[in-house]
Amino acid sequence: METNEKQGFFQSNTAKIIMVGLLTLILLIPLQFVKSLIFERSQRQKEVVEEINQKWGGSVSFYGPILKVPYTIYDETRVENEKTKQVTYQRTPYTEYAYFFPDELKSNIDVDVDSDSKKRSIYKSVVYTSKLNFKGNYSLPDFSSKKIDAQNIDWDQATVLIKTTNIKGIQGGVHIKVGDRTLTFEPTAQLSTSSNTSDLETSPMDIRELFKDEKTPFNFDIEYHGSENISIVPIGKQTEATMNSNWHSPSFKGNFLPKTATVEGQSFPAQWSISYLNRPFTQQYFGTLPNLSDYTFETGFIIPVDEYQQSERAAKYGFLVIGLTFLVFFLIQTISKVSIHIFQYGMIGLALIMFYTLLISITEHSSFMLGYVIAAVAVVVMIGLYSVSILKNAKFPLFIAISLSALYSFIYVIIQLEDYALLVGSIGLFLILGAIMYFSRKIDWNNSTAQTANA
């Protein structure tokens, strides 16, 4: 006599799918804690890097050299005598300043970047030593546009001004040669709160004596200890700049991109050519010098994707890894009719989450690739051995190990890609879905767990 035992709801595939799905959602809680740990370590790295940069030298912003010429204007005040009703005018003189940019500005910038020289504990900062050379020429300032009398211009009190950030990182003295005279820059103890720049200014000179020719040349050098980036305002009527560096991943930012920028192994030459017609400011200002820090050409020296960013990107695929791994175990359970307890699913899920803690802890002391390989191998071996004891054979655990290895390899490829990450990820998920549909096409979901007894 043959009888069929009636299948209870909790032994049905529907109930098992619900329980596995709920467990997957519950495992998102420890996965979120792992993401928080990665974020915390990343923030700690940023704090240490900022502290290193403050002591070594921050980012460099340079704006100059600017010719500064004082002139006198008069403020007339109307005065009326109350008794005689006589009206007189009093003239009160006060000093204003005119700022003139060079006609031609050429700069040559050599940057030596070292990402390993400044470390604290396991963290490192990208710092550099830069040597900047500026040369060009000035013409005699023209005050005709403001109708200022020549006798009101203090030609013998003219100075040269530069505005820059990171004066802490300036190495040695800064001297400029204008015509046949050499002048030394001194700090003016004035800080612009809007742009966080400091002023360096020379002692006065008589430009009527220096500017005898139509064009008066100037030349000066300045050396910085800096970090992160260099930005320069192209104030010349025609600005030419060349930058050479040994950094392999430059980031060109600002308002002007280089006309030539090729990465050659461990160095890159970049060149800019900027006309005064390309920028929204003039060659001279009277009264107040505006903040032009928004109109720069800039080069950044950063690590494109560090281990924390890559670990964070890997953790974003945690739900996918857990879900697909559980799905593989569930299909194997359904096909082989081997019962897998929900507790065993939980152990497998925790092992998958441990991958990310292993990953971040190992990559802090080695490369991301090495950390990823070690963490993936450890988790695959652990789950493979655990599945042998669950499934009681070697065929299905081998399939699980191969599937997990392929999944981790697929995610690693996606993490390394930038431009094609979405395309490769979409194609990969489509193929995974197709494989799951193929292997599950002949499963009888109604009778796959029904038990038959012979009497």
How would you characterize the overall build of this protein?
The protein has 455 residues and is α+β, with helices and mostly antiparallel strands. It has 2 domains: 14-44 and 307-454, no CATH class; 61-301, no CATH class. The protein has 9 helices and 19 strands. The chain has helices spanning 13-26, 28-56, 207-210, 307-315, 318-336, 342-363, 368-391, 395-416, 421-439; strands spanning 2-4, 60-80, 87-100, 104-120, 123-138, 159-164, 175-178, 181-184, 186-192, 197-201, 216-227, 229-232, 238-245, 250-254, 260-261, 268-275, 284-286, 297-301, 452-454. Strands 2, 3, 6, 9, 10, 12, 14, 17 and 18 form a 9-stranded mixed sheet that branches. Strand 9 and strand 10 form a beta hairpin. Helix 2 runs antiparallel to helix 4. The protein is elongated, with a radius of gyration of 35 Å. The termini are close together. Residues 1-5 and 448-455 have low confidence and may be disordered. It comes from Flavobacterium alkalisoli. InterPro entries: Uncharacterised_IM_CreD. Keywords: Membrane, Transmembrane, Transmembrane helix. The chain crosses the membrane at residues 15-34, 317-336, 342-362, 369-390, 396-415, 420-439. It holds the Pfam family CreD.
Report a brief summary of the structure.
With 455 residues, the protein is α+β, with helices and mostly antiparallel strands. The protein has 9 helices and 19 strands.
Biggest sheet architecture: 9 strands, mixed
Number of alpha- plus pi-helical segments: 9
Instruction: Name the poorly predicted regions.
Output: 1-5, 448-455
Q: Give the CA-CA distance, first to last residue.
A: 5 Å
Could you say how many structural domains there are in total?
Answer: 2
Helix/sheet category? alpha+beta
Order of helical and strand elements: EHHEEEEEEEEEHEEEEEEEEHHHHHHE
Number of separate strands: 19
Shape: elongated
Percentage of residues in strands: 25-35%
Helix content bin: 25-40%
Supply Rg.
Answer: 35 Å
Q: Could you report the average pLDDT, rounded to the nearest whole number?
A: 82
